[in-house]
Amino acid sequence: MLIFARNNKGKLVSINDVPNGKLCQCTCPGCDDVLVARNRGKIKAHSFAHTSKPEKRACLMTALHRFAQEYLAAQEQILLPSVKCKHMGKTKIRPAKLVKILQSSVESPLDKYKMDVELETSVGEIFIEVKVTADCSDEKVSYIKNNKVPTLEVDLSQFIEQPMEAVIDALRNIEPYSNWIYSWCDDTLKNEIEKEVEAERLALQRALEQEIERKKKITKRAINNLVKNGTIGLPAKEFPFTAFINTKEYKLQAKVLSAASWSFNSLRVMIDNEDYILATCQILSKKGQEANKLFILFPFNDDALRNFKPIPNSAVLCRLFRKGSYPYMWLSFPEPNPRKLVPAQHKAKQLKRESLEYFENYSI
Ligand SMILES: [Zn+2]
Predict the structure, then answer these.
(1) How many domains would you assign to the chain?
(2) pLDDT tens, 303-315?
(3) pTM of the entire structure?
(4) What residue ranges carry the coiled-coil annotation (predicted)?
(5) How far is residue 106's CA from residue 41's CA, in Å, rounded to a whole number?
(6) Residue where a domain stops, chosen among 17, 39, 55
């Protein structure tokens, strides 16, 4: 049913805006046939009738397309559909915006293309492509995107056979039938997202820097305290070994160093960077003689701890940052002297034997 036609001034008109019959002086926008208006009846829906050619679907489509173009171009304002922008893993939405139309035209040239409607609005130039049958060609879509031409596609294909009121309603509120090929505020939204991402990155970096500052402060205080006291509490060190007791194999630990406080001298910081502080000192034996050289690592992050490679066979202690405590642990320990290791293994074996005997007796 044809409800839009071209009048004798070349303007697209709807069936309710023309005189009845031949007086309408209209032609079909699709095939140029002379039309008569049937808009007097109260029962049948009003429509134009062709006079010498058959009414084709193409006539309806062309009429709808032309009417939509002229309707949109004739408005004083337009409610631009909302814009959703996805960029750098973030989404930003600009709600629908009512803008003034300052100037408009239909079939506007854009490079080698023809755009259905061109609107000069209060937020800049916006093109509208009215889709009734064919999609915008891929080439045209690429051109629009590459050249950042704000373009809205309005799909009216479902309205080809619809009554006029439905078409007008759709044109008044185009959001449900619209798709931005390139939105009018795409650059702005992308820019906003980029600024947000950059701000978050800076905040994170700042937080990390503050965290390192904090750990450095705590570390330097700890080093000062060590120097002041001249002693350090070394954790115990055990070496695993396997032993046979009554032909049964056991995995045991030989304790070569008991947890105890040791005196030291010449503590100094060797490396002080963003990831860790490495200090060294000279451990003193119980008799006050210089014993092993001790290195102490204060890592400020897990990477520093993972990446630190101790010199083989050196004594490296690591002070960890744990919630509310700063335990020491051995990162590296010198290979023990057999004179120390063998008795330690012997002792571990002896203790194991005793505990086995105890439980044997217990079970009887
Ligand atoms: Zn026709």
Answers:
(1) 3
(2) 888 889 999 999 9
(3) 0.69
(4) 190-229
(5) 34
(6) 55
